[in-house]
Design goal:
Helix content: 25-40%
Strand order of the largest sheet: 17-18-16-13-15-14-23-24-22-19-21-20
CATH class of the largest domain: Alpha Beta
Largest sheet: 12 strands, antiparallel
CATH topology of the largest domain: VC0802-like
Oligomer: single chain
Bound molecules: aspartic acid, magnesium ion
Strand content: 25-35%
Radius of gyration: 24 Å
Number of strands: 24
Distance between the termini: 42 Å
Structural class: alpha+beta
């Protein structure tokens, strides 16, 4: 008998009629011969209302009491859903997080799951019950009620599906599935039938999907297929699971994060330990930092930028000040009027021209790029907030994402030559690490990749205006060069600097192409370093686990490694180091994350 987990979000249980519809889904699945566990969120806007109420009483409610309060939302809805199932003639029983035995740590309002006891659920299922579990909540060691962070019911559902080894975890929502971009902003957005875990992970934290990213981390870790489907229609939804054949799309989606803020640290010393101090201070406050960038230092002075959600800015600035004080040098600046646009697609791993196409689309729409970061399957740019919709539309159109089979990029598009990195072993490694996990949500770093065949190219003092990145990467792509890590830091005058890595064998041709190009740009300078090494830490949920960056940079600092460039994404943190530091950096990281060579 198959076991299915069905999760219903707040809007899908908002009133009695919808509760009956949700109950009917579970009853149908049970009558079709399955065991069914439902995971339910608080009704409608209940959680928001409770938060509002608490704020009316005081500005800083105690987090423990917040969790006590918020957990009531789910307790109400599970009871109602169980009653509805019973009214439809099937046995059902509702359970709170406590009654299921979801044990978490004591980080109130953002607790992490440590253990789940399944005996009681299994017994109830075996007796023919539909189990109706409260999402979003658990208890800590002292029996305090905790919650998992906003949207945490997705995490509960995926975690239950993992421990119960469910055949599928169905996520019922008020949307038809996952779209290529936000359909409220872009009319031509298209629902996808399938998307891979990595792509979804890169999209979620970027605001592209509606799902809680930790729930996708879980699904990936335990190979749980997630089916996001509409609650009120028979739509097939979108399956989040690995691609079955080689039919990997080039670009899957474009995401927008509307209100980002930039923290920019200037005049930092260019020596080991700077990033460790910074990540340490952010980690202490659990501030999820994103788009971390360090470009090649100039004159012994380094500069680091990162983005945080606008709401976390004040706290991030305080933490940054503390880091600067600890280092004894540096200044903290910030900027607020920015938004982030990201393109995600698994096909980028093996094809050139994707970055060039994105930058070209932006430039044609007159959008200036303020900052760039990349991962293997994602390119993110920071743009002026006033241009966010125009930017999103331009990129969506540029990749013809409204079509089922979107067209390949028009600039220099081809399969990369030479050794394309293969990732066959990553699954195995991940499984290996997972099997050693003591607690379910521990940080998972599955792999440290060392690439010593890379060179770094930097184009300095180019005009900070639309079209420059498009020209640079267009020229490189036309030459068939596969660009990997791209970094553009925020500019504080009218000029910008761009750095990126290329396979060493392509360096000469890349330089030729660029020399020709920048001759036309007065003041622009081209520099390069033939022998550099790029080291990446790969894993799941690197952004939601602020501790990974901290451990990574502390390990590098302790080993005396100077980091030249940094670039981060949800599933990868990459650094560029000098050739003499490569081996010791690699060893330090492998041992820090308990991985074998
Ligand atoms: N009720 C909680 C929230 O609104 C959890 C959830 O809906 O997943 O964030
Ligand atoms: Mg909700």
């Amino acid at each position: 008998m198959a076991l299915i987990v069905q999760k219903f979000g707040g809007s899908s249980v908002a009133d009695a009629r919808r509760i009956m519809a949700a109950a009917q889904r579970a009853v149908d699945a049970k009558r079709a011969g399955n065991q069914v566990v439902m995971v339910i969120s608080a009704r409608g806007d209940k959680t928001d209302e409770l938060i509002d109420l608490a704020k009316q009483i005081g500005d800083h409610p105690a987090p423990r009491e917040m969790d006590m309060l918020l957990a009531t939302g789910e307790q109400e809805s599970v009871a109602l859903v169980a009653m509805a199932i019973q009214a439809l003639g099937e046995p059902a029983i509702s359970l709170t997080g406590y009654q299921i035995g979801i044990q978490t740590d004591s980080t109130f309002t953002k607790a992490r799951i440590q253990r789940i006891h399944t005996e009681r659920m299994r017994r109830l299922l075996a007796d023919g019950n539909i189990v109706v579990a409260a999402g979003f909540q658990g208890i800590d060691e002292d029996f305090n009620i905790t919650t998992l962070g906003r949207g945490g019911s997705d995490t509960t559902a995926t975690a239950l599906a993992a421990v119960l080894e469910a055949q599928v975890c169905e996520i019922y929502t008020d949307v038809d599935g996952i779209y290529t971009t936000d359909p409220r902003l872009i009319k031509t957005a298209r629902k996808m039938n399938r998307i891979a875990y990595d792509e979804m992970l890169e999209l979620t934290s970027l605001g592209g999907g509606k799902m809680h990213s930790r729930s996708i981390e879980f699904a990936k870790k335990y190979r749980v297929p997630l089916l996001v489907r509409p609650a009120y229609s028979s739509g097939e939804g979108t399956l989040i699971a690995p691609y079955e054949n080689d039919d990997v799309p080039m670009v899957t989606g474009v995401a927008l994060v509307k209100s980002e803020a930039i923290v920019n640290l200037r005049n930092l010393p260019d020596r080991p330990g700077v990033l460790a101090a910074l990540f340490g201070k952010m980690g202490e406050r659990k501030i999820p930092i994103d788009m971390v960038i360090q470009d090649v230092a100039e004159g012994g002075i380094a500069e680091v930028s990162f983005t945080v959600p606008q709401d976390d800015l004040a706290e991030a600035l305080t933490a940054a000040q503390h880091a600067v004080r600890q280092l004894g040098a540096g200044e903290v600046h910030h900027g607020t009027n920015v938004a982030k646009v990201s393109v995600v697609g698994a096909g980028m791993r093996t094809h050139t021209g994707v970055a060039a196409q994105m930058f070209k689309s932006l430039s044609d729409a007159g959008v200036n790029i303020q900052m760039i970061t990349t991962s293997e399957i994602k390119i993110s740019v920071l743009v002026n907030r006033d241009q966010k919709e125009a930017a999103l539309q331009a990129v969506h159109d540029g990749f013809t994402l409204h079509q089922e089979r979107s067209a390949p990029p028009t600039i220099g598009y081809r399969q990369a030559h030479g050794d394309v990195k293969t990732h066959v072993s990553r699954d195995e490694l991940e499984r290996d690490v997972v099997s050693r996990l003591a607690s379910m949500e521990d940080i998972v770093v599955s792999e440290v990749q060392l690439d010593i065949e890379q060179s770094r190219v930097t184009v300095r003092h180019v005009a900070d205006q639309p079209g420059v990145a498009a020209e640079v990467f267009g020229a490189v792509a036309e030459g068939g060069v596969m660009v990997d890590l791209i970094v553009q830091n925020i500019s504080h005058d009218t000029h910008a600097d761009l750095s990126f890595t290329v396979p060493r064998g392509d360096l000469e041709s890349c330089l030729l192409l660029l020399r020709e190009l920048i001759e036309r740009w007065p003041g622009a300078e081209l520099s390069y370093e033939k022998e550099i090494a790029m080291i990446s830490v790969m894993g799941i949920g690197l952004r939601s686990h602020t501790g990974v960056g901290e451990r990574m940079f502390r390990a590098l600092a302790t080993a005396g490694v100077n980091v030249q460039m940094v670039n981060t994404s949800e599933i990868r943190i990459s650094v560029v180091v000098g050739p003499n530091d490569a081996a010791k950096a690699n060893t330090a990281l492998l041992s820090t994350f308990g991985l074998k060579n």
